Amino acid sequence: MKRRLLSVLLAGVLAVSMLAGCGGGTDDAAETTTTEESTDTAETDAAEADTAETDTADAASGSGGLVGVSMPTQDLQRWNQDGSNMKAELEAAGYTVELQYASNDIATQVSQIETMITNGCELLVIASIDGDSLGTVLAQAKEQGIPVIAYDRLIMNSDAVSYYATFDNYLVGQTQGQYIVDALDLDNAEGPFNMEIVTGDPGDNNVNYFYGGAMDVLQPYIDAGKLVVPSGQIAKEEVATANWATETAQSRFENILSSYYADGTQLDVVLASNDSTALGVANALASNYTGEYPILTGQDCDIANVKNIVDGKQSMSVFKDTRTLASQVVKMVEAVMQGGEAEVNDTETYDNGTGVIPSYLCEPVIVDSSNYQELLIDSGYYTEADLQ
Question: What are the two backbone dihedrals, phi and then psi, of residue 319, each rounded to the nearest 5 degrees?
Answer without folding.
Answer: -90, 120
